[in-house]
From TrEMBL:
The keyword Cell inner membrane does not apply. The keyword RNA-binding does not apply. The lineage of its organism: Bacteria, Pseudomonadati, Calditrichota, Calditrichia, Calditrichales. This is CN hydrolase domain-containing protein. It comes from Caldithrix abyssi. Coiled coil: none annotated. InterPro entries: Aliph_Amidase/BUP (IPR050345), C-N_Hydrolase (IPR003010), C-N_Hydrolase_sf (IPR036526). GO terms for molecular function: N-carbamoylputrescine amidase activity. Residues 8-254 form the CN hydrolase domain. Keywords: Hydrolase. GO terms for biological process: putrescine biosynthetic process from arginine. It comes from the Bacteria.
Length: 289
């Protein structure tokens, strides 16, 4: 593997989608990817289900793509100039359908993450249409060792902890966050909660968090944007506007990660054996009920 870069330039793109129109959404992706290449970005990141839209329901069967689908060919070609993270509906060889994050790099699909936690409550009904992923794994890019989460995955703190313990220095969070609730600071309650979670995960794992959320309206649902990049101390490096399509270029310095992890040894102090034993005990108790 090539020497890891100390500074990484990340283009975050919070787009709206044309629901269930893969071709139109891909064309918008190409425009932003070309912009990111022109700006000298190392990686460009899009939201959850960025090439399909979110409120798909039975249309998931029409937009599901296998990982070798020819419609990914141009993304693979562009990934020779910049690493690319998109959201897609993935169809596997057993005809199971996943809400997936796909990372393209150096002309190929380098890795993927299948959403583990599928919200099925209130406005959400993902378990009706998607199979659940079953792992959180960090991966090696030419830029560093990273982790991927999709929306609800982030609301379970253990997800990010696993990735950080697996060596991830940057955790990319792709979301299709819906504005809900009434907040006390002129923004919906769940926006405030999301932003708190992002900072908390950055600090508790001493990692960079790259959160990219979509915008637009689908089936009466409003997506709030507000994408942000947060450093391991919990400070925001960039913040994109709410409710507007937006593009930001952020530079992260991995030297800051080194300083954070030396000064705050949360990861190295973690007692994994205690966690394993206690989770095993709780899981056994639940099986007995």
């Amino acid at each position: 593997m090539a020497e890891i870069k100390q500074k990484i330039r990340i283009a975050t793109v919070q787009v709206g989608n044309v629901l269930a129109n893969v071709e139109k959404n891909l064309n918008k992706h190409y425009e932003y990817i070309e912009k990111a290449i022109a700006d000298g970005a190392d990686v460009v990141v899009f939201p959850e289900l960025s090439i399909t839209g979110y409120s798909l329901k039975d249309a998931v069967y029409d937009v599901a793509l296998t990982i070798d689908d020819r419609r990914f060919d141009r993304l693979k070609e562009l990934s020779k100039k910049v690493s690319i993270l998109i959201g897609a509906v993935e169809l596997n060889e057993r005809f199971e359908i996943y809400n997936s994050a796909l990372w393209f790099e150096d002309g190929r699909l380098l890795t993927r993450h299948r959403k583990v936690y599928l919200p099925t409550y209130g406005l959400f009904e993902e378990k009706r249409y998607f199979s659940a992923g079953n792992r959180f794994r960090a991966f090696d890019s030419k830029l560093g060792r990273f982790g991927l989460l999709i929306c609800e995955d982030m609301w379970h703190p253990t997800s990010g902890i696993i990735l950080a313990q697996d060596g991830a220095s940057v955790i990319f969070v792709m979301s299709a966050g819906i504005a809900r609730g009434i907040g006390g600071d002129d923004k919906p309650q769940n926006i405030r909660i999301w932003e708190t979670l992002n900072v908390a995960l950055a600090v508790s794992t001493t990692s960079f968090i790259v959160f990219v959320n979509r915008v637009g309206v689908e089936d009466g649902l409003m997506f709030w944007g507000g994408s942000e990049v947060i450093d391991p101390h919990g400070d925001r490096i960039t913040k994109t506007e709410y409710f507007q399509e937006g593009y930001h270029l952020a530079e992260i310095d991995l030297l800051k990660l080194k300083h954070a992890r030396i000064n705050t040894t949360l990861l190295s102090d973690e007692k994994l054996n205690v966690l394993i034993e206690e989770f095993d005990r709780i899981e056994k108790q639940r099986r007995e009920y």
